Input
Amino acid sequence: MLHRPPGPEAVAPGRPNGTRFSGPSEGFSLCELLVVLAVAGLLSGLLFRQGSRAMARQRLDHGLQTVLAGLSLARSEARERARPCGLQLEASGWTQPRRPGLDPCEQALASLRRRPLASEIRLSHSFPGSLRFTGQGLVLDGGTAVLEHRSDDLRPLCAVMSLPLGIVRTGRYHGDAAAPPLARHCLPRES
Output
C-alpha cells in the first residue's frame, strides 16, 4: 500500500509539511455540557408540572362525566323499564341503593362499574343516600355534586340536578370545599 502525502488543502499553514489540519476540536467543553444540562433540566421541570396539571384536569373531567353518566343512564333505564329504580353516589362512584324496597338500576350499574372515580378525586355531594328515578324518567331527589383533585390547586368541578325533570347543569365550584355543597356556588365554566 502506497502512502500519499497530504494535499495542499489539508496542510495547515505555519505547520511543518505532512501535518494535517484538524479543524475545530470535536465534542463539547465541560462548560457547554453543563449549560445544556441546566437548560434541559429547567425545561423538563416545566413540562412535568404542565403535564401533571393536565392529568389532574383530565381526571376531574372524567369524574364529572362519570357522575353525569350515572344520572343519565339511570333515568333512561327507569323510563325503559317503566318502573322506578335507584342509584347511590359514594366516594368511589355509583353503587346500588341501600334504601329498602328500591330496585337498583342494574343496567346503569353494569355500565358504571367500568368507570370508577380516580382515587385522587374527592367527591362531596348533597344528594340523599339513594337517588330515585320514576318509571317516567323523573327524578325524586336532587342535589349538588362537587369533585376536586386532592393534589392540585385546580378549581373543583360541580354538577347540579334539579327536580323533577332532572335537568343537570355543570360548572366550577366557587364555594367553601369544607362546607356542604350548595347549588348557588356552582357557576358556569369560563371558556
Q: What stands out?
A: Strands lie at 85-90, 93-95, 121-125, 131-133, 143-149, 157-161, 168-173, 186-187. The mean pLDDT is 85. The first helix runs from residue 30 to 81.
